[in-house]
């Protein structure tokens, strides 16, 4: 140590490190509140008279919750001032940048001066992090409230020393863990100032990242609806469990859109989201042009001006043993709403949407469970809607009859295998499709020519729609008679089933000789039932052929033949009362009466013919046992430690058909042949075909007609006639990098979830160099007429990604129809990782949705509204 009457000059940093020196001074009574601990690697010098301490080389100071590290630090006990700066090393490079920490905040700067009494400081050329952002400033002053003020400051979310972009302002004020405020600012990209800015800036930087209320900045642009401001709104953070976003769009041609979404969560119980959207689509130009043009004009594809709405609700519970489970998935609204306001290609292309709300529970210590639900389905193409209000279900799991009626332990008797199960389903089904036969009420006339009608869902039509509904309850008993071994190798399984349906209507028909038509009388309650019996017999056959080749050891063939028989009586017999032979008219010339058999129930009536059928099928699996390529002894055929692996040649080859003993003709069912396998570990092959066992005769006009004669002819090597065949080849050519498993979350994901942009994917993995999948489908159906050619459909689908570099990636997909020689829905996406920014280009070249989208946006969620967007979609034409 050295003591001088004058301040010691700054000593250069030694290139040879010395033993660290450390000193701790007890806090005297006065301004110093606690012990100051300091250390240095090179040396510590004291100036006793001036009360100054000099620390050289990796100097460190700890004073309560304040710490400071630098190449050189000076402590002045007389002025209560601590200063720190860098020192040049032997090459002249400045090293040891001062790092100041206070109350969890970190500051890195070239020069730091801090008064530990007043807790004020002055920092030059500082860089500090606040939340997701970084602040660069020439000079920073800090006050006793831990707030600091920056002069000539730059705010950015780029973590580079020289950021790609920043928001520049003369003055900044930072309240740690709260917010960053600035005066007039402008955006600078690549050191090029832009005119983008505002008269003030406010950037929240909460420490605990809790939700907070705030304004959602809109985006602007232009499309067919005019110039627009989209997604302008406000988020209400009611508490930690409920939040509501209210946002809207406004268009210069008069349309607007209002959307609300409320998210809620109850930890360990449930979570959900409910939203309502109202849209006024104003399209005066399309209305005028549609009135003037023909059906071939493009404006006929555009909708009229209209008001639409859409409701979304999802509720997901946390499953708990012994507790009921309430869930909801609602997605419903106006017919054209999804096409006018689509948020994804799937929503735009989907022809139907389904909704369901249900509550289900299993009764503890019993085999019973019940479900109460309400369902809705709508077709956005036809406008048809189906409702099931309510849908009640009570189920009893399969139980043993012996254990149900006897307390004695099982002894292995054959009758102990009998089981029984029960299911009850009661439902009320309503839809807005009114069948022509039901339009005239009770006295309907069979054979009238009115077409079915689809009614609009409004208060005027509710009574008619309700009358059109049907109420019924289904009871089903599943009776198991056990499984038995026959002749050691065969599995025999008999079965019996019984079902009964209760309906709210039953019809009685009568012929009116005056009007020469049939009238229907409707009664209140109807009951139908049906029962059947059957049995199945199956076995498994193994066959192995030993090859003993250089690679192939053996080939195994697995065969699973099975036959099943089922019997069901003719419920069309008059003794059951399910059908009625009705006089429908009299031929005035021959006085011959016309009689037709009609069902006395709108639905649920069993088949009106005897069924006694035998079904049979054969399943085949062929696999090969080969020596593993990694086996070092693969050339040694006598090695007892040779490693083998199985290679599947045919995963499954199935042949099936049936024979109906009760049919008066064409008793043999079509023969189905299906096969699927994987070749070369990347090519999936699926083949399905159907063969008709009966002949096809051609008349003088060249039209074919089936005749009840077998096509089989062994002399001409004819087995059955091909009616259709479908071949699907799917090749997955992805590299091995795609198969690696990882649980890490990518760090370069764009924060674009709030944009709801249908052209931007939600996940981009820049680590995969490329992926490629090809899907080829071939369908063939021979003609039954000489005048018509055979039907041949061929389609090729392709999708994949290509990573040009670590920062560039291209993704694509599309389908080509060889028959129509047309490309169907296709997309091309280009993504560029710009470190702290992301660029995405999406292009849809074909179809009504064709257009493009270009977006360049800051990656940070804090600055997600800082973006440039240029788009042109199908509605922009």
Discrete helix count: 5
Indicate the radius of gyration in whole angstroms: 40 Å
Number of domains: 5
Approximate strand percentage: over 45%
By DSSP, the count of extended strands is 58
Mean pLDDT: 79
* First-to-last CA distance: 83 Å
Largest pleated sheet: 31 strands, antiparallel
Overall outline = elongated
Structural class: mainly beta
Which regions contain 5 or more consecutive residues with pLDDT less than 50? 1-30, 294-300, 436-450, 634-639, 740-763
User: What percent of residues adopt helix (DSSP H or I)?
Assistant: under 10%
Core attributes:
lipopolysaccharide transport protein A fold, 58 strands, six-stranded antiparallel beta barrel, 877 residues, 5 domains, mainly beta
The gist of it:
Residues 180-694 form the LPS-assembly protein LptD central domain. InterPro entries: LptD, LptD_2. The protein is mostly beta strands and 877 residues long.
Describe the structure.
- InterPro entries: LptD (IPR050218), LptD_2 (IPR045659).
- The chain is mainly β.
- It has five helices and 58 strands.
- It has a 31-stranded antiparallel beta sheet that branches. Strands 5-6-11-12-10-9 form a six-stranded antiparallel beta barrel. It has a two-stranded antiparallel ribbon with strand order 7-8.
- Strand 7 and strand 8 form a beta hairpin.
- It is elongated.
- The model is unreliable at 1-30, 294-300, 436-450, 634-639 and 740-763 (pLDDT under 50).
